[in-house]
Amino acid sequence: MTTVVNPATEEVIAELESAGVEETDAAVARAKAAFPAWRKVAPADRARLLRRLATLVEEQHEELARLESRNVGKPISGARGEVGMVAQVFHYYAGAVDKHLGETIPVAGGVDLTFREPLGVVGLIVPWNFPLNIASWKLGPALACGDTVVLKPAELTPLTAVRLAELALEAGIPEGVLNVLVGKGSVVGQRLIEHPDVAKIGFTGSTEVGRQVMRGAAGTIKRVTLELGGKSANVVFADADLERAAAAAPYAVFDNAGQDCCARSRILVEASAYDRFAELLVEATRGVRVGDPEDEATEMGPLISAAHRETVASFVEAEPLFRGDAPDGRGFWYPCTLVEARPGDRIARDEVFGPVAALIPFVDEEEAIRIANDSDYGLSGSIWTENGARALRVARAIDTGVLSINSNSSVRVSTPFGGFKQSGFGRELGMHALAGYSEIKNVFYSTEG
Ligand code: NAP
Ligand code: MG
């Protein structure tokens, strides 16, 4: 049994049957059986089905947002935004189906053509922090390319994925094309990784499990895309609009209670502005509204579980610069916490995945880049400066997949998202994601004889 808990109240909100190896094999068999017909669906028809799914998500927007909010403990306002993005993602990939083009290449003696072929059955394994959102980033391109899918949501947060599978059938997507399995990563996930009939694993989660995915995929040379952990830098130069940077910085790490792979949890500040910025940041952090996720004004809810709260707490070894308030009593609450650190400290190196930010001073641009790059990760980040040339120079020099200048922005439907280094490889969202769910076939047609 999979027991689903509301992290804000600790109440059990659902109990679901857990799939085992047998159910996983059956789901893969269903997806395999559905593939030949699905790949042949005319592009305009596949687009229409995806668009209908997007419309159903829009119609069920509030229900899905409430379900996600209760299951993850995330504020309802944030959950609404995420479900809105899910619908946009399906609309986007509905539009992409007939724009994912091949080429004709000039060669001697004939005509050379490339085709984008679907992969077959893809296994999608996703985490608990943005359950439906991250699932949609993979489902959109997979279904658009003509793949069939077995999706395994995190055991802690399966509810919206189960609902989405119902909506897919309602939209007219044929049975077997989108299968959702509720179960343990070590059982269902592991079986998907090793299954000979699964062509690709699209994985989002920890770097540690990402390594297991790569190892397990080696046996059948599966395609793999990995969106893993992060320890992103928020680089604040003295010439930045400090008020604006400080007002935004808390939300770059405390959104989703810090359970965000893109969290800018290392705040690097130019030494000459450090004291002033720290003062502004403390004030802004004091203003983050922590509490009941169902309250419209709430900006930060609890952590996902008691076990995760213990892990987060273990990172705060010294007296913090600031610790906010959090509700007492039931729920896995943890306050917004700011810690002063040096680049080598554990808090400055390891992903906390909770509402804890490390403030680190730097003396000049060169040192800022060095500290920002002194990380095993490279997912996201921000640069705050009013000097445009510097902004672009530093953006080019930081080894990370996604950067924003004078903004917290990380993901948009139409732009590529993914990591450098141990934050993984492959790109999600935008047209780039289609490359991860299709294979290029090259056909030479002789014009001789
Ligand atoms: P996780 O422990 O790696 O789990 C992710 C998924 O993998 C879950 O569905 C999990 O299932 C499954 N899994 C666990 N062990 C497995 C195994 N041996 N074989 C196959 N699947 C297995 O990550 P998490 O704790 O859910 O999420 C937090 C991590 O995700 C953080 O490191 C965060 O940075 C990363 N993340 C990255 C991105 C990104 O886009 N780069 C986005 C969000 C999160 P169970 O739940 O059943 O264990
Ligand atoms: Mg985990």
Q: Roughly what percent helix?
A: 25-40%
Spatial ordering of strands, largest sheet: 12-13-14-11-10-16-17
Cα-to-Cα separation, first versus last residue: 66 Å
Low-confidence stretches: none
Mean pLDDT: 98
What is the global morphology? globular
Count of helical regions: 15
The beta-strand count equals 20
Number of domains in the coordinates?
2
Assign the CATH class of the largest domain.
Alpha Beta
Fold-level CATH name of the largest domain: Aldehyde Dehydrogenase, Chain A, domain 1
CATH architecture grouping of the largest domain:
3-Layer(aba) Sandwich
**CATH H-tier superfamily of the largest domain:** Aldehyde Dehydrogenase, Chain A, domain 1
Could you explain how this protein is built, in words?
The protein has 449 residues and is of the alpha/beta class. It has 2 domains: 2-228 and 423-446, Aldehyde Dehydrogenase, Chain A, domain 1 (3-Layer(aba) Sandwich), CATH 3.40.605; 233-413, Aldehyde Dehydrogenase, Chain A, domain 2 (3-Layer(aba) Sandwich). It has 15 helices and 20 strands. Helix 1 packs across helix 7 (185-194), helix 2 crosses helix 6 and helix 4 runs parallel beside helix 5 (131-145). Residues 125-129, 134, 152, 154-156, 184-186, 189-190, 193, 204-206, 209, 212, 227-230, 261, 351, 353, 379, 419, 423-424 line the site of NADP nicotinamide-adenine-dinucleotide phosphate.
